[in-house]
Specification:
By secondary structure, the chain is an alpha+beta fold. It has twelve helices and ten strands. The strands form three sheets. Strands 1-2-3-5-4 form a five-stranded antiparallel beta sheet, with helices on one face. The chain binds adenosine-5'-triphosphate and magnesium ion (MG). The site of adenosine-5'-triphosphate has 25 residues, from strand 1, strand 2, strand 3 and strand 5. Its main location: nucleus. GO terms for molecular function: kinase activity. It comes from Periplaneta americana. Keywords: ATP-binding, Kinase, Nucleotide-binding, Nucleus, Serine/threonine-protein kinase, Transferase.
Length: 414
């Protein structure tokens, strides 16, 4: 799957090992002709699909809906691999995403069909474009939640959360962290099957016998879109593990009712402030060991905040079991946060109304709903496109001033 000329020569010399290295004997014209005609094994041409519409624009490239020309009916999603401009060869980040997607095969994880490429010609300076090709899902959760006509019943919300946690249970069992949980990365098919998507930031983790992530594995903590970022990452933890994804799951669960992200910080500091205002002050009493995290003394941590998760979410969520589960997911100390297994065993999923199929409700909507295609969720609200950016813009209409006003922050939590 290599792109640049030099590696292509290597591929050729590998496949015909007994020949003289062709790069030394071919002239430029011959090399170009060779590349144009090279028949990549296991990597079909992207022309087998016909693009229908653009459905996503991430920092990591564009996503298109496309039709399989062979069947003319089957739809796929094609995610363009963004090439490192200066560097030669296939980007390591894309390779990592592909390796992880090849490993993960589960009903609640997006299915990678294949990798496709465009032909290298003089018109693209002999650089192919590569695409990750996925089974097409009709909606993403951010798109669905931004449409006021889409109404989830309690049973349907349970079904969404049950599938999301099943997906997390599966990937964590396979020692993969998602690291970018957010509503836009949760896909839902028209049949109501939920698929975790966007493994662009995912990585493998190793755990010791006690299930703790190994001390010496120093992961970068610049991951997870700010609004869904857990306190341990905001405080510079580099030994984080599966709980980072369960914090995101809690944020998404609350959003099923509030319909917009519950903590929309503009900076890491502000995000921590919002978290403290909802989950209570970050202290060694509630979270032993927090004092040894790298940024514990560098960030300003609001003192004397009471935990108000249930109290503040109740007006939206109403169902007491749902409030209780949220309270157990949005826990500051990652070691006390519910894991996907405990969450799946929570009464929320085992009391009436039981989780119920989404396909009937979705059948009322014939248009695909994606974050990219949705109007901004609130006036003056920028789309939260990238992980490393601050986040959204202006305060929402539903803003509720709070005690933090004087520090220049406005509480924009639901
Ligand atoms: N299989 C799919 N079916 C339908 N839509 C998809 C599929 N995969 C991705 N999308 C859409 O494209 C969007 C972007 O895809 P993805 O999240 O994988 O890319 P990304 O470049 O990493 O995005 P970002 O950086 O914004 O998170 C998704 O939010 C979703 O709306
Ligand atoms: Mg994404």
């Amino acid at each position: 799957m290599t792109v640049n000329k030099d590696t292509n020569y290597n591929m050729m010399s590998n496949s015909r090992g007994n020949e003289t290295n062709p790069s030394t004997i071919m002239n430029t014209k011959e090399k170009e002709k060779y590349i144009e005609e090279f028949d990549f094994p296991f990597c079909d041409e992207a022309t087998k699909y016909e693009k229908v519409a653009k459905i996503g624009q991430g920092t990591f490239g564009e996503v298109f809906k496309a039709r399989d020309k062979k069947t003319n009916k089957k739809f796929v999603a094609m995610k363009k691999v963004l090439m490192d401009n200066e560097k030669e060869g296939f980007p390591i980040t894309a390779l990592r995403e592909i390796r992880i997607l090849q490993l993960l095969k589960h009903e609640n994880v997006v299915n990678l069909i294949e990798i496709c490429r465009t032909k290298a010609t003089q018109y693209n300076r002999y650089r192919s474009t590569f695409y990750l090709v996925f089974d097409f899902c009709e909606h993403d959760l951010a798109g669905l939640l931004s449409n006021v006509n889409v109404k989830f019943s309690l049973g349907e919300i349970k079904k969404v959360m049950q599938q999301l946690l099943n997906g997390l249970y599966y990937i964590h069992s396979n020692k993969i962290l998602h690291r970018d949980m957010k509503a836009a990365n949760v896909l839902i098919t028209k049949n109501g099957i939920l698929k975790l998507a966007d493994f662009g930031l995912a990585r493998a983790f190793s755990a010791n016998k006690n299930g703790q992530v190994n001390r010496y594995s120093m992961y970068t903590n610049r991951v997870v879109t700010l609004w869904y970022r857990p306190p341990e990452l905001l405080l510079g933890d580099r030994n984080y593990g599966p709980p980072v994804d369960l914090w995101g799951a809690g944020c998404i669960m609350a959003e099923m009712w509030t319909r917009s992200p519950i903590m929309q910080g503009n900076t890491e500091q502000q995000q921590l402030t919002f978290i403290s205002q909802l989950c209570g002050s970050v202290t060694p009493e509630v979270w032993p060991g927090v004092e040894s995290l790298e940024l514990y003394n560098k960030m300003e941590l609001p003192r004397g905040q009471k935990r108000k998760v249930k109290e503040r979410l109740k007006p939206y969520v109403k169902d007491p079991f749902a409030c209780d589960l949220l309270d157990k997911l949005l826990v500051l100390d990652p070691s006390k946060r519910y894991d996907s297994d405990s969450a799946l065993n929570h009464d929320f999923f085992w009391t009436d109304p039981m989780p119920c199929d989404l396909s009937k409700m979705l059948a009322q909507h014939t248009q695909s709903m994606f974050e990219y295609l949705a109007p901004p969720r609130r006036p003056g609200h920028l789309r939260p496109h990238h992980h490393h950016q601050g986040g959204a813009g202006a305060a929402g209409a539903a803003a509720k001033p709070s005690s933090s006003m004087d520090s220049g922050y406005q509480d924009r939590v639901f």
